[in-house]
Each structure stands twice: as structure tokens, then as C-alpha cells.
């Protein structure tokens, strides 16, 4: 039997039951909802915080378990979105005042892809292939949005633990990133304790390079990068293109349908660490795809800021969850009030 046939059979077996554990994460540390024989109805009855959740929590948790994502419709107030994007425009248009880190995925920046905003020309900052990194450090409202109560309530239920916001990315245009799973790149001390939010800052158009994803792909067998296992770094024998090709091929072989995310301003997509997803091609370069992507872990799995792993972090607490202050840029904290 070929390796591909074995992978296909393993994936079909995993997809056949919502009670199968998530492949190749340590079973003992899996969030409760990823384990076998979970009782969602009993959990919902006992989860006091869920009583004020503005959606059907049991329905959302069952959907998450089956599909690896949920959508919280109109979760973020429109006026918050407008004010937050106004802060992003201020950063772009007056970049010389700000030290915010920005990743530029252009060939001319290949040697130094991450730079401070003040060192990047405004026409580059205002164009595609830009990721504004951890803008929540600078923006009090960015923290409020990423830890808005419905998001925290749901993720606290998923993790069974206090929620920690780890990092964020702000986009004006579509990322066009190939298919991937977040756990391979975003490091949590317990890899299975990882989730993300994709927050629409405008209505998303089909031609703007929208997010796509494969429902149910969080149960597929993990890709092997070689000597670094299921995680990717500079020593991996396989690369992100290999990773994308594997995921696209395996999803197709087991019959998972690729779906496109066309949500409205203020809607939030929450997804599992292992959900296969990516950014579609931008078919109309005049169209923006303003979005705010946030990654989360649990208190037991993310106890230190990634920039200072050996020191106790400064915690900002919002709605019963925490985000850590950036230890390298204290002067930039909450400069947008």
C-alpha cells in the first residue's frame, strides 16, 4: 500500500466520527472538545459564562467539533470597526511616528522582510503584501476587539481555561497565502491549545482575495516537515509549498469541499489550530480585504510573551482574558487610545 493511500485511509477514518481525537497532538493535553466521548450538552449546562453568550452555545460547539470553525455574526460593533481602521490609516499615512513592526512580502524586501513602520515608504505600507504585526500593542481598541466578550466566552469554552491573546495581524489587502494550518507556524507551549479569529473590517468581496478553508480538515493526519516533525522552522526538510500541496491534495482525496469566506463587516470567524485554510487570489487589485487576524492560547499553554520567554509578562485583562504587553516596545503600548 502506498504512503498516499495510507494517508487517505487514515484521513477517512478520522473524518468518520466526531469523537476521534485530533491526530498527532499529545492526547493528554488536548482541549476537552477534541477528546473522545465529550458531552457538550452537560458542559453547556455547567458553563456559567455561556448563559450570556448571544448565540446558541451548544450549536456552535457541536459545529466547531465537526467542522473546525464557527462564525459569530455581527459580533463586533460597526463603530468599533470604523474607529479601529481609522487608527490603521493613521499608522500608514503618518508612519514616520511609529515603530510598529510590519512584514513586507515583496522581493525587494526579501533580505529584511520585517521592519518598523517608520522605515517603510507610505506607498508600500498602503499597498498589498503587507502585514501590520501586533497592532493591538499600540491600540487599546485593538485589545478590546480581540478580547471582545463573545470571542472570549467561546474560546474559554473550547480551551476549558482562561484565554490568552498571543498576537495579531492587520491586513488591508488579501494575503494570498497558500493553504496551511496555524499550529505549524504559531508557537504555543501546548500546540493543541491554539485558535484564531478572522475579523472582517469591511464586507468581503469574492474578487478581493477572500479567505478559504476546508471544513473538517482539522482532523486530518498532520504533515511531516522532516526532522522538525509537524512544526516548521528554518531547519525543516520540507517547505511551506510542500505543506500546501499536501493539504490541498489530501483534502481533495477525502472529499472535503473548499469553502470561501464571504462575511460581512463585524462578523468573526473563529477556527481550530488545525483547520486548513489560505488566502485566495486577488482577482481585482482595486478591491481591499480589510481584516484583523488574532491568535489565542490558554493560560496553561502560553505563560510568557514570545519576545521574553524567561520573564513574567505584564498582563492586560479584558473580559476575563489576558493579553501581554510587548516587553520590547513599552513606549508604544496603547498610543492609540
From TrEMBL:
It comes from Spirosoma terrae. Its cofactor is Fe(2+). The keyword Acetylation does not apply. It comes from the Bacteria. GO terms for molecular function: 2-oxoglutarate-dependent dioxygenase activity; iron ion binding. Pfam families: PhyH. Coiled coil: none annotated. The keyword RNA-binding does not apply. This is Phytanoyl-CoA dioxygenase family protein. Keywords: Dioxygenase, Oxidoreductase. The lineage of its organism: Bacteria, Pseudomonadati, Bacteroidota, Cytophagia, Cytophagales. InterPro entries: Phytyl_CoA_dOase-like.
